[in-house]
Amino acid sequence: MAQTLRACKECSAITEEDKCAICGNPTSREWQGYVIILDHTKSEIARRMGISINGKFALRVR
Known about the structure:
10% of the residues lie in helices and 34% in strands. The protein is mainly beta. It has one domain (6-61): Single Sheet (Rubrerythrin, domain 2). The strands form two sheets. It has a three-stranded antiparallel beta sheet, with no helix packed on it. A hairpin with a 5-residue loop joins strand 1 (6-8) and strand 2 (14-15). It starts with 5 loop residues before the first strand and ends with a strand.
């Protein structure tokens, strides 16, 4: 059985865990959309979202 994806309430990183591996904050099952950042140094979206690492991030987290 596949585990439900969750998104961090603070940094929006997508994970399967109850706590974010990046910042340690709690995660939520209620999120919408996602973006995959391959090169955060050249990404306008990463800059606007305040993302400073590569990975998969939710666009909106509740």
